[in-house]
């Protein structure tokens, strides 16, 4: 299962096409819209979110609420388009009063993208490198999430830190799977700790006051995984590789850690690796800890998958950094425009979808891809074999 997207931040809308979708999968439009709304949420988002109410429109591939086995096409429209019809018109001449973007923001794709594509207007770059382009990715991920949900796999995320404020956690690789969606989604920063939520909001308020922006870290947690999904033999099929790559494809993601991550490098092996135990009651192998974060040798262990990602601060600053004006080549202040101060809670929702795609693809490689009935039969046979070992 893979997806493609097209669309700009202030164009007519954003499109996703998902290929390799098995037939017979139940899909809920409402659930996709809930995820789109979750992506728009979060303390620290800017004025644009008051304009947009993202909803999905399915164009193909789904009939009477079930996938047909053909590619699924979706659109998420931009409400703001009506304010940009002249400046973003696909055809005709540019308006005479068009203001080109010539003061690239440090940390954004503006400058390098303009050099690469030979344009004198950084808008051509920022329109596509905008966080807005994650909206169709979340819509597309709805298919992967439904696929996994039907196989007993669920995915959630939560924010661990914003700026210098972190929630306190005891052995999160073992315990993160116990957080409830209610505790996460009722927090304005999508953090299950009420005290940390308030401290993070204060941190964002301080950034607004000082005209700055903030990044942070979040975890994606997956429960209900079977052991042995992914691969150790083919480098590109290792889940560390596919999930890592998928998370790094989200704009602004600067680091990914599986389980204990970088801390593993500082400890001796005896304090890192998870002892194996036989759970006789459930006829399965388990681990007494989960420092590996649910992956060994690029495959699922059957323990919860716990992956942490770090997001850098938003590059648009209300107190801009120094740049160079591309017209005059003089020192200038970087572009300053309506933006978000912090989008970590939203990025975590995007990351859930990326992890879902990587896992759905790995499940289909192992258990088949044509239709849900055959996939479920293959999973049943696999479970039976593991149980009778
Ligand atoms: C963004 C700037 C803001 C954000 C936008 C990403 O939009 P605008 O320039 O229209 O004010 O709100 O994110 C979204 C619209 C979204 O839906 O995520 C940027 O510069 O990347």
From TrEMBL:
Q: Which cofactor does it need?
A: FMNH2
Gene Ontology cellular-component annotations: cytosol
Binding of NADP(+), residues: 39, 45
Which parts of the sequence bind FMN? Answer: 128-130, 297, 312-316, 338
Does the keyword field hold Flavoprotein? yes
Q: Cite the annotated pathway.
A: Metabolic intermediate biosynthesis; chorismate biosynthesis; chorismate from D-erythrose 4-phosphate and phosphoenolpyruvate: step 7/7
Work out whether the entry's keyword set contains Lyase.
yes
Q: What class of enzyme is it?
A: lyase
Q: Return any one Pfam family short name.
A: Chorismate_synt
The family database entries (PROSITE patterns) matched by this protein are listed as: CHORISMATE_SYNTHASE_1
Q: What does this protein do?
A: This reaction introduces a second double bond into the aromatic ring system.
**The name this protein goes by in its record:** Chorismate synthase
Q: Which organism is it from?
A: Senegalimassilia faecalis
**What gene name does this entry carry?**
aroC
């Amino acid at each position: 299962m893979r997806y493609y997207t097209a669309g700009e931040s202030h164009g007519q809308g954003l499109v996703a096409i998902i290929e390799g979708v098995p037939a017979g999968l139940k899909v809920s439009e409402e659930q996709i819209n809930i995820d789109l709304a979750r992506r728009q949420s979060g303390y620290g988002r800017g004025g644009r979110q008051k304009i947009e109410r993202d909803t999905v429109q399915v164009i193909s591939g789904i009939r009477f609420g079930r996938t047909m086995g053909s590619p699924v096409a979706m659109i998420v429209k931009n409400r703001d388009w009506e304010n940009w019809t002249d400046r973003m018109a696909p055809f005709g001449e540019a308006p005479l009063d068009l203001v080109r973007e010539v003061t690239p923001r440090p940390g954004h794709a503006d400058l390098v993208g303009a050099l690469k594509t030979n344009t004198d207007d950084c808008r051509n770059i920022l329109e596509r490198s905008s966080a807005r382009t994650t909206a169709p990715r979340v819509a597309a991920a709805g298919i992967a999430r439904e696929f996994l949900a039907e196989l007993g796999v669920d995915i959630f995320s939560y924010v661990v830190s914003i700026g210098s404020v972190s929630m306190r956690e005891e052995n999160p690789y073992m315990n993160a799977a116990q957080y409830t969606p209610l505790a996460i989604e009722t927090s304005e920063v999508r953090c299950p700790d009420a005290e940390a939520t308030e401290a993070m909001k204060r941190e964002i308020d301080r950034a607004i006051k000082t005209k700055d922006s903030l990044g942070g870290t979040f975890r994606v947690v997956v429960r209900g995984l079977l052991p042995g999904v992914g691969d150790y033999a083919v480098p590109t099929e290792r889940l560390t590789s596919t999930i890592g790559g998928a998370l790094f494809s989200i704009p602004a993601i600067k680091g990914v850690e599986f389980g204990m991550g970088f801390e593993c490098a500082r400890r001796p092996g005896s304090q890192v690796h998870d002892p194996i135990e036989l759970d006789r009651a459930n006829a399965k192998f388990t681990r007494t800890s989960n420092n590996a974060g649910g992956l060994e040798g690029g495959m699922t262990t059957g323990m919860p998958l716990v992956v942490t990602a770090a997001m850098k601060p938003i590059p648009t600053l209300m107190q801009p950094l120094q740049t160079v004006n591309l017209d005059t080549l003089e020192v200038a202040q970087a572009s300053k425009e309506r933006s978000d101060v912090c989008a970590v809670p939203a990025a975590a929702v995007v990351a859930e979808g990326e992890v879902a795609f990587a896992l759905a693809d790995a499940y289909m490689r192992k258990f088949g891809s044509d239709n849900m009935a055959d996939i479920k039969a293959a999973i049943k046979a696999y479970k039976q074999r593991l149980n009778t070992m």
